[in-house]
């Protein structure tokens, strides 16, 4: 997405292809439900970059004019200016808008982005309880990092191929095949690794590189079977306008197909990534004179967008991310449209006022390169300082700091039996530990998603209190509701099937069903059938728990915004009106209560213990430092201990 080709004839159709790529990505991020396949625009960028960069290197080597210093100086002048501007904007905006825990994370991402290792940083963080992708203003830098890692390795590789007069087409094909096979292997069970690992994404850049080698050496695919490219006269295959048009229309058709059929739930990249890669390389191979390339890709609107595609890619995601954080979810479509238009305007200004003067102006090349490197080092230092100082939590007075500064995955899952009895949705049921189901009676069995998993600290504290001697069983999994026969995630079906078998074997005295019932991803049509299976297992009592307060935004973010409205030394409000809650909570509570009654099972609403006519609690007492939740609705440890203590008389009542 950041490559140019100063040593080859300019092709406006490639700028048009860039435009299709960046528009696809931007519209997907702005309207994810409507443009589900737009994320493949990144794969189009990879092919373009591989083609252009390899063309530069191979042409320079062929003419004995390639310079590593010149190559990397050009990369720095091309990539650093706009990136520095966006990183500076993010760190400034984060100071005013983000909680300490989120600002600390942004500091880490700025450091990773400055060092072009963002893909590894996000790969390491990935997981259900990781911050939502929309709340990471620099998440999009993962793809730029993969490109830069390719740029670091690729010139030396091609130099070695040229130095020993090896067949460049053959060697590129071998490397491409190896990378693609790594991609196929990882995508089967390690989708996150397949997505972020450069070894599983380089093949897309190598697709473009192979075409570049064929163009520079003027050979066809038959060159794969030659030991060297210089043993025979050039074998560049003749092409006709009809042939080029066929390539272009086929390539365009593949891109349309993938944009309409691929969605984020598919195993991607995998085989699906072949479609955008092949479509892109066919369009480039068709050449600038193919009808589609000449009249569509090379049209002035697309070329204009293509010229600003790099700064547009950099600007669009931070703007959409901060808007998402501010709104506590996906903003209205008209607001999203406004942010997209602002991103376009900023991209054009960046191109005109920053990129062009630095890349094409009469500035001293050595001085500007050194200055850009120094500025990037300072940016990395700023990110590191932000991370090391916990997001500069001293920005807030002590009276609110504890409520604001903690959070993230560790705080949310504190006290859970994570990875033992509460599994990530990508793990098989074999990962459940034997101690998850105790032998002691009466046995209370918890089944559900992560919200059910969050009950454990409360029940553990209740056990320790000695008020109600009981054994505890638990089988919970993130994003897997306690409903048989569904598969919203790859392994939910097998996890739930294993759980119902565990219930049959343990025959608990009480089964507690608790899930995020109003999650739109959940298919609850088989809930009644699930309850029947539990009854058939001989379970005498089934209790369904309704929702506790689920907030429109993460509760610490709401508390921060409300605290800013009052005196500096005032605490955030102890209660908030239900207007701050997810509007579906009350409706879901009524609906699930009615379903429970029809199924002949008990229902307990969590809202009854935290909300009254004055609103819903944000923490247990006015002087408490732990909020009710560190995210949108998983209760914090203290709140869960209180909640289960209130539930206990209802759970252990005598029939």
Largest beta sheet: strand ordering: 1-3-2-4-5-7
Radius of gyration: 28 Å
Question: Quick one: overall form?
Answer: globular
Q: Supply the number of structural domains.
A: 2
Classify the oligomer.
Answer: single chain
How large a portion of the residues is in β-strands, by DSSP E?
5-15%
- Helix and strand composition category: mainly alpha
Please give a structural write-up:
The chain has 655 residues and is mostly helical. It folds into 2 domains: 12-394, no CATH class; 408-551 and 583-611 and 634-651, SGNH hydrolase (Rossmann fold, 3-Layer(aba) Sandwich). The chain is built from 25 helices and 9 strands. The protein has helices at residues 12-30, 41-62, 68-97, 100-114, 118-125, 141-163, 168-189, 191-196, 202-217, 241-261, 274-286, 291-297, 300-307, 309-327, 333-360, 365-388, 398-405, 408-412, 450-453, 456-465, 492-506, 527-536, 555-564, 584-599, 637-651; strands at residues 422-423, 443-448, 471-477, 510-514, 541-545, 575-576, 602-604, 611-612, 615-617. Strands 1-3-2-4-5-7 form a 6-stranded parallel β-sheet, with helices on both faces. The chain has a 3-stranded antiparallel β-sheet with strand order 6-9-8, with no helix packed on it. It is globular, with a radius of gyration of 28 Å. The protein starts with 11 loop residues before the first helix and ends with a helix. Residues 1-7 have low confidence and may be disordered.
Topology, element by element:
Layout (H helix, E strand, L loop, with lengths): L11 H19 L10 H22 L5 H30 L2 H15 L3 H8 L15 H23 L4 H22 L1 H6 L5 H16 L23 H21 L12 H13 L4 H7 L2 H8 L1 H19 L5 H28 L4 H24 L9 H8 L2 H5 L9 E2 L19 E6 L1 H4 L2 H10 L5 E7 L14 H15 L3 E5 L12 H10 L4 E5 L9 H10 L10 E2 L7 H16 L2 E3 L6 E2 L2 E3 L19 H15 L4
Parallel strand pairs: 1-3, 2-3, 2-4, 4-5, 5-7
Antiparallel strand pairs: 6-9, 8-9
Helix pairs in contact: 1-2, 1-12, 1-13, 1-14, 2-6, 2-9, 2-11, 3-4, 3-14, 3-15, 3-16, 4-5, 4-16, 5-6, 7-9, 9-11, 10-11, 14-15, 20-25
């Amino acid at each position: 997405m950041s490559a140019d080709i100063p040593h080859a004839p300019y092709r406006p159709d490639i700028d048009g292809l860039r435009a299709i790529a960046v528009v696809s990505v931007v519209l997907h991020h702005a309207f994810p439900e409507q443009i589900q396949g737009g994320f493949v625009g990144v794969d189009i960028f990879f092919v373009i970059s591989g083609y252009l960069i390899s063309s530069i290197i191979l042409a320079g080597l062929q003419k004995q004019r390639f310079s590593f210093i010149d190559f990397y100086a050009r990369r720095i002048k091309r990539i650093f200016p706009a990136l520095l501007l966006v990183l500076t904007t993010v760190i400034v905006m984060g100071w005013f808008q983000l909680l300490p825990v989120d600002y600390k994370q942004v500091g880490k991402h700025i450091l990773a982005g400055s060092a072009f290792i963002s893909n590894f940083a996000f790969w390491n963080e990935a997981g259900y309880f990781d911050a939502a992708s929309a709340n990471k203003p620099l998440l999009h830098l993962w793809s730029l990092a993969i490109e830069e890692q390719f740029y670091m390795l690729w010139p030396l590789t091609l130099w070695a191929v040229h130095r020993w007069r090896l067949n460049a087409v053959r060697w590129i094909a071998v490397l491409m095949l190896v990378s693609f096979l790594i991609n196929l292997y990882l995508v089967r069970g390690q989708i996150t690794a397949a997505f972020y690992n450069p070894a599983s994404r380089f093949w897309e850049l190598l697709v473009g590189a192979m075409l570049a080698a064929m163009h520079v050496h003027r050979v066809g695919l038959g060159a794969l079977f030659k030991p060297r490219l210089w043993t025979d006269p050039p074998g560049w295959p003749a092409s006709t306008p009809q042939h080029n048009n066929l390539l272009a229309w086929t390539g365009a058709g593949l891109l349309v197909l993938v944009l309409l059929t691929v969605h984020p739930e598919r195993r991607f990249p995998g085989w699906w990534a072949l479609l955008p890669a092949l479509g892109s390389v066919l369009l480039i191979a068709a050449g600038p004179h193919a009808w589609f390339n000449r009249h569509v890709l090379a049209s002035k609107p697309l070329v204009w967008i293509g010229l600003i595609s790099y700064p547009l890619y950099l600007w669009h995601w931070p703007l959409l991310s901060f808007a998402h954080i501010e709104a506590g979810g996906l903003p209205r479509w008209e607001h999203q449209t406004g942010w997209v238009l602002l991103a376009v305007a900023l991209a054009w200004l960046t191109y005109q006022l920053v990129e062009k003067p630095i890349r094409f102006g009469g500035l001293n090349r050595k001085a500007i390169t050194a200055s850009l490197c120094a500025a990037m080092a300072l940016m990395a230092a700023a990110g590191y300082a932000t991370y090391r100082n916990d997001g500069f939590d001293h920005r807030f007075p002590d009276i609110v700091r504890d409520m604001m500064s903690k959070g993230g995955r560790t705080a949310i899952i504190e006290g859970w039996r994570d990875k033992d009895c509460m599994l990530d949705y990508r793990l098989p049921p074999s990962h459940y530990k034997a101690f998850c189901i105790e032998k002691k009676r009466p046995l209370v069995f918890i089944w559900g998603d992560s919200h059910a998993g969050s009950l454990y600290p409360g029940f553990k504290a209740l056990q320790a209190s000695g008020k109600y001697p009981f054994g505890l069983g638990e089988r919970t999994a993130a994003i897997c509701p306690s409903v048989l026969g569904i598969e919203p995630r790859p392994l939910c079906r097998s996890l739930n099937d294993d759980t119902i078998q565990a219930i049959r074997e343990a025959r608990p005295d009480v089964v507690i069903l608790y899930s995020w019932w109003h999650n739109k991803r959940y298919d609850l049509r088989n809930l009644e059938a699930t309850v029947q299976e539990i009854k058939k297992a001989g379970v005498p009592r089934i209790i369904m728990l309704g929702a506790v307060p689920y907030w429109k935004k993460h509760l610490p973010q709401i508390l921060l915004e409300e605290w800013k409205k009052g005196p500096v030394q005032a605490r955030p409000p102890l209660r908030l009106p239900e207007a701050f809650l997810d509007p579906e909570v009350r409706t879901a509570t009524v609906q699930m209560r009615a379903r429970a009654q029809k199924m002949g099972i008990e229902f307990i609403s969590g809202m009854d213990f935290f909300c009254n006519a004055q609103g819903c609690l944000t923490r247990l007492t006015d002087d408490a430092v732990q909020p009710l939740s560190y995210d949108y609705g998983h209760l914090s440890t203290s709140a869960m201990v209180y909640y289960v203590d209130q539930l206990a008389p209802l759970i252990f009542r005598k029939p």
